[in-house]
């Protein structure tokens, strides 16, 4: 692969942030995804939030049970910071009520139980990133549409103004020649 193509490929790699207080889980997930994605890791919710301040992350994979901040608390704090980022929770425990609440609020794309199946997780990640792409595209199209709508309103306002006071916009020389033009017709 040429260096230019390799550079473009690297630019297209999605960034994923994996958060887990267990180093073995971080290493396993990083090994699983480092070939396809740019993988960032954090061992705590606070470290993850600091990382999100500096990186445009497409996908967050967080353990639910961590000291100081749970995965759900982390997810809730990331919504304002990275609204389009897709969020997945890993859990070895069944704290079902909080997980259901997080999923129903739209903050969590999916939750996955530990131990995970690598193939199923890879498929879930691929689908989540497809979802991210669709959400990001929809957002970008909405922004373009809003700009075009604002411009159209400006043009309509100018057209309305021109219809109301057409002579005010004419050059003074045209006003001076107007009698001549009317008498020749």
Layout: helices, strands, pairs:
Blueprint: H1 3-12, E1 15-19, H2 23-33, E2 38-42, H3 45-54, E3 59-63, H4 71-81, E4 86-91, H5 96-104, E5 110-113, H6 118-164, H7 172-184
Parallel strand pairs: 1-2, 1-3, 3-4, 4-5
Describe this structure in words.
By secondary structure, the chain is of the alpha/beta class. It is built from seven helices and five strands, in the order αβαβαβαβαβαα. The protein has helices spanning 3-12, 23-33, 45-54, 71-81, 96-104, 118-164, 172-184; strands spanning 15-19, 38-42, 59-63, 86-91, 110-113. Strands 2-1-3-4-5 form a five-stranded parallel beta sheet, sandwiched between helices. α3 (45-54) runs parallel beside α4 (71-81).
**Percent of residues in helical segments?**
55-70%
Uncertain stretches: 6-10
Number of helical elements: 7
Strand residue content: 5-15%
Strand order of the largest sheet: 2-1-3-4-5
Q: How many beta-strand elements?
A: 5
Shape: elongated
State the separation between the terminal residues, measured CA to CA.
Answer: 74 Å
Q: Please state the structural category.
A: alpha/beta
Descriptive terms for the model:
14% strand, single chain, alpha/beta, 185 residues
Task: Describe the structure concisely.
Helix content is 60%, strand content 14%. By secondary structure, the chain is of the alpha/beta class.
């Amino acid at each position: 692969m040429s260096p230019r193509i390799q550079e473009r490929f690297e630019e297209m790699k999605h960034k994923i942030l994996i958060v887990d207080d267990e180093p073995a889980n971080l290493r396993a997930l990083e090994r699983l995804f480092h070939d396809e994605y740019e993988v960032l890791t954090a061992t705590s919710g606070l470290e993850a939030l600091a990382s999100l301040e500096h990186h445009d992350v497409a996908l967050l994979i967080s353990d639910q049970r961590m000291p100081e901040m749970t995965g759900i608390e982390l997810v809730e704090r990331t919504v304002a910071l990275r609204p389009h980022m897709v969020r997945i929770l890993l859990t070895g425990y069944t704290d079902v009520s909080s997980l259901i609440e997080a999923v129903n609020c739209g903050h969590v794309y999916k939750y996955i139980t530990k131990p995970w199946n690598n193939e199923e997780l890879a498929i879930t990640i691929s689908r989540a990133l497809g979802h991210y792409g669709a959400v990001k595209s929809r957002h970008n199209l909405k922004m373009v549409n809003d700009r075009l709508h604002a411009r159209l309103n400006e043009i309509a306002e100018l057209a309305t103004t021109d219809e109301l006071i057409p002579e005010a916009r004419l050059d003074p020389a045209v006003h001076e020649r107007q009698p001549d033009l009317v008498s020749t017709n």
